[in-house]
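Memo to structure team: turn this sequence into structure tokens by end of day. - J.P.
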Amino acid sequence: MARNADKNFALVSIAVDAQGPEAARPWAEAAGATFTTVVDRENRLAALYDYKLVPNGIVLDEHGIVRYAKIGGFSVENAADVDAVQRLIDGDAGQIEAESRAVPYRLGATERELVETRMRLGSELFRRDAREEAVAEWQRALRLDPENLTIRKQIWMARYPEKFHPTIDFAWQTGQLQREREEELAAGICGPDGCPIPGATSR
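Reply from structure team:
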């Protein structure tokens, strides 16, 4: 955001990628990014903000207080998202409420800790080239948190790298997610609140 170059504002992108900086770098370079990109190998940001999907937009003030957070669907190509961030930079609003996608459930403290531990263990195993062992740990984390797309994508990137490089196959992701969730629901892997009742609609 060149128009904000003289303001107390810094833009940082965070790539959730257990494969590390080398896997994330081509995407930052292809986008021509002139801002800092940080790699979150262990999905710690998701644990901190309790989100289960990306892309997200989060604005912190100089004291580290969240002034804006849109979880799911944030885009710099969405005029409303850009306007909300710009208003905060300009000091026009103390805090702006964003319409985030609903969280299907919330994990308890013990389950969250288990998920975080398995994510960290999986990342460490992946760094040691123990790919299948890493995937197994991520799958254990996913079983505890089956709606967490950030975990699921780590598994996909490890097992199906051709679907992510040189381009991301979003159509494949949509179909793969549907297939996997149907299989998981049939096997009783539903989430901490149990399985949805067939034919019921959520409110």
